[in-house]
Amino acid sequence: MVLHNSTEEWRRIHVSLDWYLINNQELNQLNRVLMWSFNELPYYLRHCFLYCSVFPDGSAIKRKRLIRLWVAEGLIEERDGLTMEEVAEANLKELVFQSVLWVKDKNESGRIKSCRVHDIMRKLALSMARDERFSVVRRGSQGNGTQWWCTDARRLSIHTTNPQFSPPPRPKMPNLHSFSVFGEAIFSQLFPRGMPSLRFKLLRVLEL
After folding, report:
1. What backbone torsions phi and psi does residue 87 show, to the nearest 5 degrees?
2. pTM, whole model, 2 decimals?
3. Helices 43-51 and 84-97: crossing angle, nearest 10°?
4. Where would I find the Disease resistance protein winged helix domain in this sequence (predicted)?
5. Following DSSP, what letter does each residue of 37-50 receive, concatenated?
6. Which of 108, 131, 151, 201 is the most buried (most CB within 10 A)?
């Protein structure tokens, strides 16, 4: 019961934040400033930033994991004399320098260990990623009907604390390149008959 109340309270907070972002003039102005900050990013950083929105609210994003995913997703461009991982880490440092990502932890040598996205910046990233069909985030509390699983986005991220959470038998995601799950749902319950690979012909990243 305590967990349920806590989850419901967080849902109300998110709804309230959405309302204020839309209706509060000062926050609308802030939103325009944030949009300007995003548009000022070099093109090779924009999708790296948008990708960070697939992680849950307030989560610490591990450097190694983020770099591995950026590379696997094809978001990193080659540079002479550098490995793809080195380029990805340089991109991460630049996003921190641009203040769109925050450093959460560093190791003893001062290297970034984990980072996070500010809540308001994440709201912006979620909206832009959805509009550009770059990615979409679904929460378990939103339901799991067939329409819920129909998306033409290239990346789908599911956030759920329900271990019984499961998709319909024939999800429609023809353009899906990346599928990730954060929470307690497990593979055998997401896909009890195995991964429907014929329906995910473009899939290149699977994070469960």
Report:
1. -65, -45
2. 0.76
3. 90
4. 54-125
5. HHHTS-HHHHHHHH
6. 151
